[in-house]
Design brief:
The complex is a heterodimer of chains A (about 500) and B (about 375). Chain A has a seven-stranded mixed β-sheet with strand order 13-14-15-12-11-16-17, sandwiched between helices. Chain A contains 16 helices and 18 strands. Chain A has helices spanning about 40-60, 65-80, 85-100, 100-115, 120-130, 170-175, 195-205, 205-210, 220-230, 240-250, 275-290, 315-330, 340-355, 400-410, 425-435, 475-480, and strands at about 1-5, 20-30, 30-35, 140, 145-150, 155-160, 180-185, 210-215, 235-240, 255-260, 265-270, 300-305, 365, 375-380, 390-400, 415-420, 440-445, 470. Chain A has about 500 residues and is α/β, with parallel strands linked by helices. Chain B is of the alpha/beta class. Chain B is globular, with a radius of gyration of 21 Å. The chains are: A alpha/beta (about 500), B alpha/beta (about 375). The interface between A and B is large, with 53 and 40 residues.
Chain lengths: ~500, ~375
């Protein structure tokens, strides 16, 4: 029996507040995790928020963007080191708490951190605000023929209601890049990663860590949430459609809110990509898209549309995919499921099996044991419905890819990520139509779970949306030119 | 395919005799023989089920025990009709849970199958709900069969009235809604005349009635022998109430002692009903743990949610039923209810699927709620 102690919170090193901690225990097989959690009260949240803002004023707001990027880059590189002690700790705790296999947690840390390096941050900043030095001081802008500067919020409150490991770190990065303090409310499903990540920041730059905190409370605790919102000027909310709309109603008008409700991804493979030559590679990509985060992330595909009339049929592709799903299961096993998730898979398999046995053109393929993976290949029902997830692959046959646009139209507001391989002259028009439909990211099969830091998450310019600009125009140029700002970053 | 009439007639007779024997006999061999005979017929005459079993390499010749018979998941009733006598269907009940017709399951009964269901209702209720022989006024918090002929619960309650109720027994939900005033009048009359009452219905209906009474400051002192029979969950149709609070409300508002409050598990896919042993034990002076009693003509297993392998007593998993009275459709049914085997029977903790999603991808339940909210 192995016992691991972990923290389900992070406070800045100089934060003092009388707290009697509680411990939550998680067990799986021979590992027990004792998670230390401070009970959140409105007073604690208020004191913490004020503390973060004070530290931000003292440190982060005056920190050059170059230093911020360097700290965050170093943190990512540390996490990419397989021997990094915090990473090893996370690999012990997260599988026990979330049920994800440790291979899957490891893969998700790698994926997230590899796209969170210096280069990615500069690219993201330039993509959204052109000149990152606008964050440091007034810079001359040709377009304005004057000077402009961008100010981030004082305090961003972030709600993570999900258990996707390493998603929270992204919000701390984004807040730091706009020089905002950040208070993250973690989910009961995965409260440890964010706390460990902030420990890393503390080790590199305690001043910066002084502007960051992680706390858990039961979502919907209105008094605690009111305290958080009353001290913040921005909020970033992740959660179900209902959670988001309930929280939104309670956020004061003065607080800038960015909302990431539950979304869904999908894939489309055109007939000119359905040939023997690269079917295997394509199948490996499709398997990876479904396997990463066990299909629980909004980036994951809920369905892949396959166009008929190619060199290989959708049914043949399904068989090739079955091999890929099976070897994916060996490399990166699917995590443990709740009873409800497993029951849903068995019930859904049962329905598809009965359709198949009734003579409908439905193919069902499953892992030999348990619920590890499932593939269903059928004619598109014409109307989107969600997948049971947890590596439940649905391949929907379509006569023509244009059908996909029509069928997804009713769920446009929920669309996020699309993997597309059309492979002929229809592609440009198809992409345009996907964009109009509401899709926020288009990539190729096998790349669905690995967005760059530059992508517009759910269609939002996540850094720019947090900023407030101050423009200086129509003033005597000489007054400003004398200060001679120059670009210190090689853009 | 040979004609099954004779064979079926004999099987029905034998199952009926087995059900009517009592609730307390224990005849494993008799049960297993009947189960295998029913399976043979279902295997032979329900082609879809036969193919389902063959895919699992199971035929009646290859197995000898009821627990090797392949169970069908409840959701398959949304895809197809499973009936031993598809051209003699007398009744079709639909599963509830959603307003989307495509998502409703259909379970069909022939006359013989209905007779078996009637027998289970009579035998089980006489020993689990009315073991004291009381003949009460039965008030049902559900619509009458004319309004809801497709609800198996309504069918069952109607049988209860027929077998056990006084003439003034009735259903209290009309097309316009819950007739609370009529319920209150009936309860006051019963109080005055000293007539015992059996209030039966969905658990949420009780809670909505209790909340109404609390609001208006209404209380009853129902005559001795009165009882409550509640079934099902709350799921957004009333506030959520734990069992202890529910029993306190029965006592506080109706004046019904907790020993006279019985919870029932019934499902459209299963002909039999599972009653709490509370009333039976109470009358026998036994103070044992509450459990759903398993009648001799049924078996309940708890299986691992992922592997579907049976779990030992006490462990929580998915409930699997085997019901001889299901001979008209499929005897072996895999549910997605969470439960465990406990001394005296089993306990059910609700639908496993109500535990919500973990990730940030849109889930089936979420989508259903959004659509239902918007419609």
């Amino acid at each position: 029996m192995k016992t691991v102690d972990a923290n389900g919170y992070y406070f800045p090193p100089d934060f003092r507040y009388p707290i009697s901690y509680t411990t939550k225990t998680y067990k799986h097989e021979d590992v027990t995790v004792h998670l230390k959690i401070p009970p959140a009260t409105p007073d604690l949240v208020a004191a913490l928020a004020e503390h973060l803002k004070k530290n931000r004023e003292k440190h982060l707001s005056r920190m050059p963007i170059e230093r911020i990027v360097a700290v965050l880059d170093k943190a990512s590189r540390l996490w990419l080191d397989k021997d990094y002690p915090y990473r090893r700790l996370a690999l012990q705790t997260i599988p026990v708490i979330t049920g994800f296999s440790s291979e899957a947690v490891e893969a998700s840390i790698d994926v997230e951190m590899e796209t969170s390096l210096e280069h990615d941050m500069w690219q993201a900043l330039r993509s959204e605000i052109q000149n990152p030095l606008y964050l440091d001081d007034f810079q001359y802008s040709d377009e304005l023929d004057g000077y402009r500067r961008a100010f981030g919020p004082e305090l961003v409150v972030s709600f993570f209601s999900e258990n996707i490991p390493s998603l929270p770190h992204l919000l701390f990065m984004r807040s730091a890049l706009v020089k905002a303090a950040c208070l993250g409310k973690v989910a009961s499903g995965e409260p440890t990663f964010a706390a460990l990540y902030l420990k890393t920041i503390e080790d590199i730059d305690p001043d910066m860590a002084g502007c960051m905190a992680v706390l858990y409370w039961q979502g919907g605790d209105e008094e605690v949430e009111r305290a958080a919102f009353n001290h913040a000027d921005a909020a970033v909310i992740f959660g179900s459609i209902e959670t988001c709309s309930s929280i939104l109603k309670r956020i004061p008008n003065t607080v800038k809110a960015l909302v990431h409700g539950h979304k869904m991804g999908f894939g489309v493979i055109g007939k000119n990509r359905m040939h023997h030559k690269d079917a295997e590679d394509l199948a490996v990509g499709v398997a990876y898209d479904h396997a990463m985060f066990d299909q629980q992330a909004c980036l994951a595909p809920q369905v892949y549309y396959l166009e008929e009339g190619g060199e290989i049929s959708p049914g043949e592709f399904a068989r090739i995919l079955a091999d890929a799903m099976s070897s994916m299961e060996e490399k990166m096993p699917r995590g443990r499921l709740s009873a409800g998730e497993a029951a849903l898979i068995h019930q859904s398999r049962g329905r598809y099996e009965i359709k198949e046995l009734s003579g409908e053109a439905v193919q069902l393929m499953t892992s030999v044991y348990g619920t590890a993976w499932t593939i269903v290949c059928e004619k598109s029902p014409g109307r989107f419905s969600p997948s049971p997830l947890n590596r439940f692959v649905r391949l929907w046959r379509v006569k023509d890819i244009s059908q996909v646009i029509r069928e997804l139209k009713p769920v446009g507001p929920f669309l996020q990520n699309a993997a597309v391989a059309v492979g002929d002259e229809r592609e440009p028009d198809f992409l345009r139509e996907l964009g109009e439909l509401g899709v926020a990211r288009i990539t190729s099969p096998g790349n669905m779970p690995v967005p760059s830091m530059m992508w517009h998450h759910d269609g939002i310019a996540t850094l720019a949306a947090l900023l407030r600009w101050c423009d200086v125009e129509k003033m005597m140029k000489s007054e400003y030119r004398t200060r001679n700002y120059e670009c210190r970053v090689n853009a | 395919m040979k004609d099954i009439t004779q064979e079926l007639k004999q099987l029905d007779k034998d199952i009926l005799a087995f059900i009517q024997k009592s609730i307390a006999h224990d005849d494993e061999k008799g049960f297993n023989d009947l189960a295998m005979r029913a399976f043979e017929l279902q295997f032979e005459h329900i082609p879809l089920y036969r193919r389902y079993c063959q895919r699992r390499e199971i035929t009646p010749q290859e197995i000898s025990s009821w627990d090797q018979i392949p169970p069908l998941p409840t959701d398959v009733f949304k895809e197809a009709v499973f009936s031993l006598l598809p051209d003699q269907i007398a009744r079709t009940f639909t599963t509830s849970g959603t307003s989307n017709i495509k998502e409703q399951g259909n379970v069909s009964y022939d006359e013989g199958g209905l007779n078996l269901m009637d027998a289970t209702i009579r035998t089980a209720a006489s020993e689990m709900l009315f073991p004291d022989g009381v003949r009460p006024m039965i008030l049902v918090l559900a619509p009458p069969p004319e309004i809801a002929p497709q609800m198996v619960m309504v069918y069952g309650m109607n049988r209860l009235i027929e077998y056990f109720g006084l003439p003034q027994s009735r259903f209290l939900i009309e097309e316009i809604g819950f007739d609370i005033k009529s319920l209150i009048d009936a309860l006051r009359t019963a109080e005055k005349e000293g007539v015992p009452v059996a209030i039966c219905g969905g658990s949420f209906g009780f809670v909505n009635f209790f909340d109404y009474c609390i609001n208006k400051g209404i209380e009853f002192h129902l005559p001795a022998g009165s009882r409550c029979l509640d079934a099902g969950g709350f799921k957004g149709r009333s506030r959520e109430v734990g069992r202890e609070e529910f029993l306190d409300l029965c006592k506080g508002i109706l004046g019904v002692q907790r020993g006279f409050c019985v919870n029932l598990l019934g499902m459209t896919e299963i002909s039999s009903q599972y009653y709490d042993n509370t009333l039976k034990n109470h009358l026998q002076g036994l103070n044992t743990q509450r459990a759903k009693s398993i009648p001799p003509w049924a078996r309940v297993q708890v299986v691992d949610p992922d592997s579907l392998e049976p779990l030992p007593e006490g462990e929580t998993g998915l409930l699997r039923h085997f019901d001889l009275a299901n001979r008209g459709h499929i005897c072996a049914i895999q549910t997605d209810d969470l439960g465990s085997i406990v001394p005296g029977g089993f306990e059910v903790y609700g639908r496993a699927r109500d535990d919500g999603s973990r990730g940030c991808s849109l889930s089936i339940d979420e989508m259903t709620r959004i659509i239902e909210d918007g419609s």
